[in-house]
Design brief:
Number of domains of chain A: 3
CATH topology of the largest domain in chain B: Ubiquitin-like (UB roll)
Distance between the termini of chain A: 47 Å
Largest sheet of chain B: 5 strands, mixed
Structural class of chain A: alpha+beta
CATH topology of the largest domain in chain A: Uridine Diphospho-n-acetylenolpyruvylglucosamine Reductase, domain 3
Strand content of chain B: 15-25%
CATH class of the largest domain in chain A: Alpha Beta
CATH superfamily of the largest domain in chain B: Beta-grasp domain
CATH class of the largest domain in chain B: Alpha Beta
Shape of chain B: elongated
Oligomer: heterodimer
Order of helices and strands of chain B: EEHEEEHHHHH
Structural class of chain B: alpha+beta
CATH architecture of the largest domain in chain A: 2-Layer Sandwich
Number of helices of chain B: 6
Number of strands of chain B: 5
Helix content of chain B: 25-40%
Radius of gyration of chain A: 19 Å
Chain lengths: 288, 157
């Protein structure tokens, strides 16, 4: 490994020119809860660490005109503690509260959790169900807005360019009539990496489902939306038959692997059971 | 090896230390600043033995770069209390038999301090959640929870 250097600055331009100079050997670090273990395991060998904590104004949770925005450097603990998220977006609160441990939540950031693009990233299923988008800044060219369902392209792979960093996560505040839930199945209660995670948001008008959003984690190369399940749920009354059909459809929509935590077969079965449970609990009136 | 000079306030004492970019806060605390009260457990954020307060927030020092502590306040177990002047949390751990092999204790006391600063009247469930990033392989946790809960009760009365 070459010599490792470190840069912290509040100047975006300095960051972009440092990336250009290091030609593929720079790595961003925010909380460090992924990057440091990756370096120890020699999964990555950067020559420059760019500490994003120098950037000011990327730590906030705001609500304005029905839009919620979260700065990329906001820690998971700050999301857990946020009244805006707690009151308006319970599924994001519960996902944040399930990530790692209180110690890691004090360091880990929302931008880092998404940029790491783990297929099991805890913040991604609720954000995908909320139809969030990611805002970026780049060297030389304008930053862009990337819908989250176009953001992940594989395990630990995103569409982000090397000189592109996440500045903000943005989504519309859910309607008052919307209800949702986040369920994470891990091998234990704390410090668990998801075996299966599910976020469900249903917008119900009386008995009729106007809109359904279903996202799953740890059951495909990326966090995925279950589009077929969504269209099965939308446009009519959700009865036990529909729920049973969704529990079958979801098994075909996912493409799980076998790993140290669970077999593909178990993940398929568990996704089916947890999806059923999630829909039933939302219908019983879980608050979003 | 390229080094950087950083300044940290370790247990209220200003320290200057040369570090490399890959060194973690845990490594420099133990190897360069003699703070061996910080325990090196798993080295990847799974056990909480290396917990310290960074500007008042409990973090795993193994998952924090030394450079990321530059200009910050770091409080370790000894900054909370020592043999001559133990903190009530430490007394409570002794009283309730919450220390067996002792390896997790440094991290447990640090996390208990951060937690009790936020919550003076915790339920057992809240305490369980607060220490959920700290592994203990001896006590079965019940005595640690007793120690933290009784410390909270006693400091109220």
């Amino acid at each position: 490994m070459g010599e490792l250097e470190y840069l912290i600055t509040k100047d975006f331009e300095e960051i972009f020119s440092a990336i250009e100079k290091t030609k593929g050997l720079a790595k961003f670090i925010a909380g460090g809860t992924n990057i440091i273990p990756y370096m120890h395991a020699e999964a990555i060998s950067p020559e420059l660490l760019i500490d994003l904590n120098g950037l000011e104004d990327l730590k906030y949770i705001r609500e304005k005109n029905g839009t919620i925005t979260i700065g990329a450097l906001t820690t998971i603990s700050e999301i857990v503690a946020s009244e805006i998220i707690g009151n308006k977006c319970q599924i994001l609160h519960s996902a944040a509260n399930s990530l790692g441990s209180p110690l890691t939540r004090n360091r880990a950031t929302i931008g880092g959790n998404l940029a790491d693009a783990s297929p099991a990233a805890d913040m991604a299923p609720p954000l995908l169900a909320l139809e969030a988008s990611i805002h970026t800044k780049r060297g030389g060219v304008e930053g862009r807005e990337i819908p989250l369902d176009k953001f992940f392209i594989g395990p630990n792979k995103t569409v982000l360019a090397e000189d592109e960093l996440i500045t903000q996560i943005r989504f519309s505040k859910p309607k008052d009539s919307a209800r949702g839930i986040f369920i994470k199945l891990g091998l234990r209660n704390s410090l668990a990496i998801s075996v299966v995670s599910i976020a469900v948001i249903l917008d119900m008008e009386g008995q009729v489902c106007q809109k359904a959003r279903v996202a799953l984690g740890a059951v495909a190369p990326t966090i995925i939306r279950a589009f077929h399940v969504e269209s099965k749920l939308e446009g009519g009354e959700i009865n036990e038959n529909i729920i049973q059909e969704c529990a079958e459809i979801v098994k075909e929509e996912i493409s799980p692997i076998s790993d140290i935590r669970a077999s593909a077969e178990y993940r398929r079965l568990a996704s089916s059971v947890i999806l059923k449970r999630a829909i039933q609990q939302v219908l019983k009136g879980e608050v979003l | 090896m390229k080094t950087y000079l950083i300044e940290i306030k370790l247990n209220k004492e200003l320290k200057e230390v040369e570090v490399t970019a890959q060194e973690t806060l845990l490594e420099i605390l133990r190897n360069k600043l003699g703070a061996i009260d910080v325990k090196d457990g798993c080295g990847k954020g799974d056990c909480g033995a290396c917990a310290v307060l960074l500007d008042g927030k409990a973090v795993n020092s193994c998952l924090t770069l030394a450079l990321q502590a530059n200009g910050k306040e770091v409080t370790t177990l000894r900054g909370i209390g020592n043999e001559k002047n133990p903190h009530p949390i430490q007394n409570s751990f002794v009283k309730h038999g919450a220390v067996q092999c002792g390896f997790c204790t440094a991290g447990m006391v640090v996390i208990a301090k951060a937690f009790l600063n936020q919550n003076q009247n915790p339920s057992r469930q809240e305490i369980r959640e607060a220490i959920s990033g700290n592994l203990c392989r001896c006590t079965g946790y019940e005595k640690i929870i007793d120690a933290i809960q009784n410390m909270a009760l006693e400091s109220k009365s």
